[in-house]
Design brief:
Blueprint: H1 5-13, H2 30-40, E1 52-57, H3 60-87, H4 91-107, E2 113-120, H5 131-137, H6 140-152, E3 155-157, H7 167-174, E4 180-182, E5 186-190, H8 204-207
Antiparallel strand pairs: 1-2, 2-4, 2-5, 3-5
Helix pairs in contact: 2-6, 3-4, 3-7
């Protein structure tokens, strides 16, 4: 069966980090979340070791713990970002991202679902043979597949990791054992407004090299 490339490309190019447009008032059915997880489990994994686990948090008290951890890490992070923007160009675009990020920090506890993707075990020590890269590479595609599945079902997501600065506190609140690694926190909600647009990106021709670093000559 042929894919509808227009629809596929639209999904892949418009799955944005949604912060301001998360609908804080509309509950997300658990069956819909299970659909997204079901799709995500088809993500590639080295050796077919399916280490993925998901903790879906829709309880207000537990969401508050995650949001508090997030905010405590967020304060120094955003201060550094604002300082960097002040020194760099294109401040308007970067300030818009910061404003969106500030909004998410303020409302995180109100987002209907905070999805915590986890992995059994811990990243291996780097021995120079790519074990750590392989470990992460067997997990990140699955989390992104969840985001894509959510997008195709009218849900907005944002990939965040700042709560991990206080990950032990979150683990205690959620009963996550210390033999499990939290990968991210994915706020998940229906989104408001119309559809999303592709973001501005550098042309593929500028960032694709052929056989040698920095060689962009497509004609060989």
């Amino acid at each position: 069966m042929d894919f509808d490339l227009e629809q596929t490309d639209h999904l892949l190019t418009t799955t944005r980090a949604v912060r301001k447009r998360l609908d804080l008032t509309r509950p997300v059915p658990r069956e819909l979340l299970l659909d997204c997880v079901r799709i995500s489990t088809q993500g590639p994994a080295g050796g077919n070791h399916q280490r993925w686990r998901w903790v879906m948090v829709d309880d207000a008290d537990r969401k508050a713990v995650i949001a508090d951890a997030y905010r405590r890490s967020y304060a120094p992070y955003i201060a550094a970002q604002q300082e960097a923007v002040a020194k760099a160009g294109n401040a308007a675009a970067k300030n818009a991202i910061i404003d969106s990020s500030l909004h998410l920090a303020d409302v995180l506890a109100e987002v209907p679902v905070l999805a915590i993707p986890c992995a059994l075990g811990a990243p291996p020590s780097d021995t120079g043979h790519g074990e750590a890269q392989g470990w992460w590479g067997s997990l990140i595609p699955t989390v992104w597949s969840y985001c894509l599945a959510a997008r195709s079902r009218g849900l907005g997501t944002a990939w965040t990791t700042l709560h991990l600065g206080y990950g032990d506190e979150v683990a205690d609140a959620l009963g996550i054992p210390d033999t499990v690694t939290q990968l991210a926190c994915i706020p998940t909600a229906f989104y408001t407004g119309d559809d999303f647009k592709p973001a501005s990106r550098r042309p593929a021709e500028e960032i694709t090299y052929w056989n040698r670093w920095k060689d962009t000559a497509i004609d060989g």
